[in-house]
Amino acid sequence: MPGFIDGIKAAKAILQGLMTTGRHVPRRPVTFEYPEKPKPVAERFKGRHALQRYSDGLERCIGCALCAAACPANAIYVEAAENEPGNPVSPGERYAKVYEINLLRCIFCGFCEDACPVEAVVLRHDYNLADYSRGILVVSKDELLDSPDRGFGENLFKQGMSERAL
Ligand code: SF4
Ligand code: SF4
Q1: Which residues are 123's β-sheet partners?
Q2: 75 lines ligand 2 (CB under 6 A)
Q3: Which ligand sits nearest to residue 124's alpha carbon?
Q4: pLDDT at 75 over 50
Q5: Sign of the dihedral defined by the CA atoms of residues 59, 63, 66, 68, in that order
Q6: CATH number of 49-153
């Protein structure tokens, strides 16, 4: 007799489980097929950094290091150099010869983006930041810089801002 009662209990538990499964079948899935279909993020999400350009291809960054000064995690290193007048890298007098961000230190607060006077450094939506080596997570200017065809906006320095602001 105890075996029969245990059998009834087991059958009831299986039935309850199947009913729970059945209730969820018509619902929209809450999981994402990452990495093929990454989870969308909010518009203001702050992910991996990028360095932007102007529409004429010049780099926006003028090597002022305000982003590094604003960073609470001391994650940014900037080394500026003088632009060659006939072959400038950026508008203005200087450009970032070296620009590095240590993503292991970064807390993705966005203060660097807020501090930048020329919209050079921005935090985009990429959150695929895991890797196997710490060195890889110190990203260089080459890895951060947008391609020349991705630039936008007229640079204000053409209109004499360089003399006023720098
Ligand atoms: S997001 Fe914040 S912590 Fe990260 S580099 Fe910018 S200022 Fe520093
Ligand atoms: S990213 Fe902006 S704040 Fe940072 S060095 Fe370049 S111009 Fe200055």
Answers
A1: 49
A2: no
A3: 1
A4: yes
A5: positive
A6: 3.30.70.3270
d(CA 159, CA 156): 5
> pTM of this prediction?
0.82
Which amino acid is residue 63, in one-letter code? Answer: G
User: Angle CA(117)–CA(76)–CA(48) in degrees, nearest 5?
Assistant: 85
Q: How far is the CA of 66 from the centre of ligand 2 (A)?
A: 6
Tokens of 163: 């003399």
Ligand 2 contacts CB of residue 61 (under 6 A): yes
- CA–CA dist 107, 110 (Å, integer): 8
Q: Which atom of ligand 2 is nearest to the CA of 64?
A: 8
Q: Using the Cα atoms of residue 26, residue 28, residue 29 and residue 34 in order, give the sign of their dihedral.
A: positive
Residue ranges of alpha helices (H) inside the chain are 2-24, 66-70, 111-115, 141-144, 161-165
Q: Is the pLDDT score of 68 beyond 60?
A: yes
**Under 8 Å between Cβ of 78 and 96:** yes
- Cα of 38 to ligand 2 centre, how many Å? 30
What's residue 161's pLDDT?
53
Q: Whose CA is nearest to atom 6 of ligand 1?
A: 112
Q: Which residues contact 8 (CB under 8 A, 6 or more apart)?
A: none
Of 145, 121, 60, the closest CA to residue 94 belongs to 60
